């Protein structure tokens, strides 16, 4: 390719330059990262700087539109795009040059999209263009998604897109997968009891593939004061189970992101619960943490030559 794709570091620099070049003061404090998020949101809605200025609802929107214009001009001078531009400009290319669109439609006859609930408007519009039927071809689109799993709103994803899927693609056949192979029915029932109150999606009750096991306990939920209290309660619960005869290797703590392991590891160490971290390196086993702890031990005990 004859252009460069700029990542976050370059984006921050260009956004800072765009803010510095503003002749007026922003209505509110705006950091480069804030400006990048605002511009990304505009691009996800297929808004060029000119359209962003036209549809500005308040002084902040108008200020951002001006910075957006300068930011795009700087990208052009550097012969560069950011990741949002790759969708925005591809959509623009296909919209303005039907012959190019037809070439790619012929090249990509079948389009498969996973996690459709996490698409943003620009991605949805691009998919609609690529799969648009014509006299020579029918639409061939296969997508998988679940509105109840929409978690990327902070990245401009719009969960209502999948809710409108049948409206936007009326010829689509919808297959509902209601059997869950991961969880017990008690977990599925608890999850449904929460999400059924949602006004944003139409939840579907799931059924567990596995039959209930003899002596299976009901799901227990506790409300912790904070992350530390949560970890300490879990460590106490594990020790209680161990005293009842449960083996430590039969117990698992599931958490969503790697950084969350630190609180659990600290609580388990304090409660003298043996553990291992699967799928990543434990917090206290990371090289930088081991080095820092070795320095602290050496300071506390100058004779600790091993540290």
TrEMBL record:
GO BP: any one term: recombinational repair
GO MF annotation, one: hydrolase activity
Keywords: ATP-binding, DNA-binding, Helicase, Hydrolase, Isomerase, Nucleotide-binding
Keyword Lipoprotein: no
Enzyme class, broadest EC rank: isomerase
Domain UvrD-like helicase ATP-binding: 1-184
Catalytic activity reported: ATP + H2O = ADP + phosphate + H(+); Couples ATP hydrolysis with the unwinding of duplex DNA by translocating in the 3'-5' direction
CDD domains: DEXQc_UvrD
GO terms for cellular component: cytosol; DNA helicase complex
Record has DNA-binding as a keyword: yes
Cross-referenced Pfam families: UvrD-helicase, UvrD_C
Domain UvrD-like helicase C-terminal: 185-307
This enzyme's EC code(s): 5.6.2.4
Family statement: Belongs to the helicase family. UvrD subfamily.
Protein name: DNA 3'-5' helicase
């Amino acid at each position: 390719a004859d252009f460069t794709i700029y990542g976050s570091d370059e984006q921050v620099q260009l956004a800072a330059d765009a803010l510095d070049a503003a002749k007026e003061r922003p209505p509110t404090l705006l950091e480069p990262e804030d400006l990048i998020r605002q511009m990304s949101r505009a691009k996800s809605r297929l808004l060029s700087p000119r359209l962003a200025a036209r549809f500005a609802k308040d002084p902040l929107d108008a200020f951002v539109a001006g910075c957006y214009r300068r930011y795009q001009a700087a990208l052009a001078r550097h012969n560069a795009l950011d990741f949002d531009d790759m969708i925005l400009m591809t959509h623009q290319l296909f919209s303005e040059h039907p012959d190019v669109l037809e070439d790619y439609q012929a090249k990509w006859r079948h389009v498969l999209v996973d996690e459709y609930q996490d698409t943003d408007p620009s991605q949805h519009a691009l998919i609609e263009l690529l799969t648009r039927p014509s006299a020579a071809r029918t639409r061939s689109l296969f997508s998988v998604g679940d509105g109840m799993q929409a978690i990327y709103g902070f990245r401009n994803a719009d969960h209502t897109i999948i809710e409108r899927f049948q409206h936007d693609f009326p010829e689509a056949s919808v297959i509902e997968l209601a059997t869950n192979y991961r969880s017990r029915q008690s977990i599925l029932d608890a999850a449904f009891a929460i999400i059924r109150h949602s006004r944003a999606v139409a939840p579907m009750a799931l059924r567990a593939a596995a039959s209930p096991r003899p002596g299976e306990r009901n799901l227990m939920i506790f409300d912790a004061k904070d992350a530390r209290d949560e970890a300490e309660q879990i460590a106490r619960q594990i020790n209680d189970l161990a005293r009842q005869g449960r083996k430590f290797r039969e117990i698992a703590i599931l958490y969503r992101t790697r950084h969350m392991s630190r609180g659990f590891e600290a609580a388990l160490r304090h409660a003298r619960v043996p553990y291992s971290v699967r799928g990543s390196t434990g917090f206290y086993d990371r090289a930088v943490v081991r080095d820092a702890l070795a320095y602290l031990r050496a300071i506390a005990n100058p004779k600790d030559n091993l540290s």
